[in-house]
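SAMPLE LOG
Freezer: B-3
Tube label: C17
Construct: single chain, 469 aa
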Amino acid sequence: MRYIDHILILTACTVWSSCQQTVKSKDQPNVILIVADDLGWGDVGFHGQLRIITPNIDSLAARGMVFSHMYAGSTVCGPSRASMITGLHTGHGAVRGNPRWSLSGHPVDFDSERQTMGKLMKSAGYKTGMIGKWGLAENMGKTTPNHQGFDYFYGFNKHLPAHHYYPEQIWENDSLLRLTQNDTKNKTGDHVQSLFTNKALNFIEASQQSPYFLYLAYTTPHFELTLPAEHKVKYDSLGWPMRRMKRGHYYHDTNGHVTYASMISKMDDDIGRIIELLKQRGELENTVIIFTSDNGHEYDELTNEFFNSNGPFRGRKRDLYEGGIRVPFIVHWPAMVAHGSSTEHITAFWDIMPTLADITDAPMEAATDGISFYPTLSGLGKQKRHDYLYWEFNEGEGPIQAVVKGNWKLIHWVENNNYELYNLRKDPGETEEVSKNNPGVLVDLIKIVSAARTESDEFPLTRRPNPWK
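STRUCTURE (predicted):
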């Protein structure tokens, strides 16, 4: 498809981001946003993974643009997904932790009246679908997908039911369906990964007259680790050491290494099915496919790594070190994005929504912390950059805050008021704390971390006990 009639437009000013000029196209592409669950930065071949086979994801990377400095909204799924859906970082959003970690112990949902990604895409004339793990409607009010701009929903409204791969019930729009063929504890019936993929294919096939937006949020490879035996064949005979998994809240299969790799490869196979359907429909050229993960990995043991799931980075899920928040990110859009391209532009989940606004000409009506990275994708217009990125996290060892400003990263351990400063350009693995040698940088970033948040009654920066114990 040829792109013509590019014009300069002025994007809407918002409370936390400045106006900027971008170059636009009059054509509206289809958009498919695929989000894996707890997939590490190093779990994919295009980031150097040697054991897990991901040819379809790697092909998207080879033909699209890879962002080496994409940061998740948080280091756990709830606030990370809320950041992506609302365009706010965890210092401004309502959802700053997973459901049980609020001060009251009651789940907190985002403001149902604000503009969200679904509402934005709907306002641009898109047919909209959300399939998979929504996890942002704990109170089952008006933050369910059908109230947030999505015409079609199939999946999990709440966080906890998404922990199991053979659910006995699942939501389709506003109806809770019984999956009578499934037995959660015995892990029989239809694996939810296949259910999500089949529904995604059906949604695409049913989209004929208007451009469509599909938010496909897989639960792979989040615990629990389980998959039918036929999908493990390629790894079963490799003679890998056994990592024995124990059943508890999660009904794991016994062999962790084989199951973990097989789950990721099964997701890759399913993404291949989606790509093939787009080719058959003649839509691949003008479909924006975004692939990412909601936060760092949980599976690989940092003291005895097998997959090197966090790549060169320190930490994993529930850390604000790079391994917990740096995530794989691909944008595949043959009609606009240069094949085999990459960028070190520093960006975060709260930038995705304003970017989609630029791609689709939809107005950003809500305040956002995000900055569109459309100029980076298209090579058209000047790319505005963040003054800084901010996170806060209050589980386990928290409360913790973090700021990235250019090459510098500050981590603040709130309870003992301890600061760690790293130069990410020289030391991406965060192995050398350098605050003593850079006092001016330290003072600058302390000022930022102190001013970057608004107060939250349910998520104050105070330590509290683990609600799971």
